[in-house]
Design a protein that fits this description.
This protein is an alpha+beta fold and 351 residues long. The protein contains 7 helices and 14 strands. The relative contact order is 0.09.
Length: 351
């Protein structure tokens, strides 16, 4: 769902004398509910308040038959004159109004996030734990503090702007307004432009690149969906020459995982080299993320990008040139997840 689905109900009218403000009054009271219908109702009432003010202005100026765009522009111009008279910073007032408007039309706490595109070799970045992850091109060189330097496609840049207006984001970065106009993206923390970015030769915007704490991340997944994938019994169903493998977690409240896998022999330092079929690999990816959410010291996160498994090691994300490990399916359609660095052991079925 878009963050802008709560706009006021449209009506057909070309001039203020064709519009009855009382027709926008709904129940005559605010419903103040989080439901979509109630949000649209309340914002339609707010539109009615503005229509009443505009109608009064039209009576005084004799412009009641002018088109809405014309009379609205006239009123905005005269409001600037009034602001000069009474000493009001109209630009600041406008930004406050823009912030209220965006908060009132918001349905979701987060915008729809555009997925990464393998074609452009994009990675995901986030500003803080729990924030949305946005796909971007990332330079190999990190900032001095280890932050990544992202460049966002225009649709993703717009999603970043939308998210910056949410309550979740505003606690960390006080952006009051923002827009993309041609090749310029502007963000406002006050009445003055606080950040301005020009599109590069690829049409991308380097929002906060090197200045904001962007870090590599993984795309959002519903934890309930991952839990359902992990508990699927198919992960322990052996086919052909498969064995069962496990990893010792040392967590009494989180049983060690068990997966069916083809084994390519023992590692010299102990453990085995496993390869997982796609249905089992789905469960392995889910388990990696479940384990990380329980205890980030387990040290890995994972996601699917088309037919590839991407493994992100948080310990390395601040290092120049680091990119998530990409695991492609082999000739058998299997995935060698954790093949070289993880201590996969055979599961003892006699236990």
């Amino acid at each position: 769902m878009s963050v802008h689905d709560g706009r006021a109900r449209p009506v057909t009218a070309e001039s203020i004398d064709q519009l009855d403000p009382s027709a926008l009054d709904g129940d005559g009271r605010f419903r103040e509910s989080a439901g979509l219908e109630d949000i649209v109702h309340d914002n339609t009432r707010r539109a009615g308040f503005a229509a009443t003010a505009l109608a009064a202005y039209a009576v005084v100026t004799g412009t009641h038959q002018e088109k809405f765009a014309t009379i609205t522009g006239d009123l905005l111009g005269d409001l600037r004159h009034l602001a000069d008279t009474v000493g009001v910073d109209l630009d600041r007032a406008y930004l406050n109004g823009e912030a209220h408007y965006r908060d009132e039309i918001r349905i979701d706490d987060e915008p729809d996030i555009v997925r990464a595109t393998n074609e452009h070799d994009e990675l995901y970045v986030e500003l803080f734990p729990g924030s949305p992850a946005f796909p971007a091109l990332v330079r190999d060189e990190r900032a001095d503090n280890g932050w990544v330097r992202p460049r966002f496609r225009r649709p993703v840049a717009q999603a970043v702007i939308d998210w910056l207006f949410t309550k979740n984001a505003s606690a960390h970065r006080a952006i009051r307004a923002g827009f993309i106009d041609g090749d310029v993206l502007a963000l406002f923390e006050s009445a003055e432009v606080s950040f301005e970015y020009r599109a590069d030769s690829d049409g991308r915007f380097a929002i906060g690149s090197g200045a904001w704490p962007w870090f590599l991340s993984v795309p959002a997944v519903d934890p309930a969906d991952e839990a359902a994938v992990y508990v699927n019994a198919q992960r322990v169903v052996q086919e052909g020459n498969e064995d069962l493998v496990t990893i010792t977690m040392d967590d009494p409240d989180f049983p060690d995982p068990i997966f069916a896998a083809l084994l390519d022999g023992e590692r010299p330092c102990g453990g085995w080299y496993p390869r997982f079929r796609r249905p089992v690999a789905n469960a392995v990816v889910a388990w990696i993320n479940i384990a990380f959410r329980r205890d980030p010291s387990h040290g890995a996160r994972a996601y699917w990008e088309d037919e590839s498994v991407m493994i992100l090691h948080p310990d390395y994300i601040a290092m120049d040139g680091y990119r998530p490990e990409r695991i492609e399916p082999d000739a058998d359609g299997c995935y060698a997840i954790g093949r070289d660095g993880w201590l996969w052991e055979k599961f003892d079925t006699s236990d």
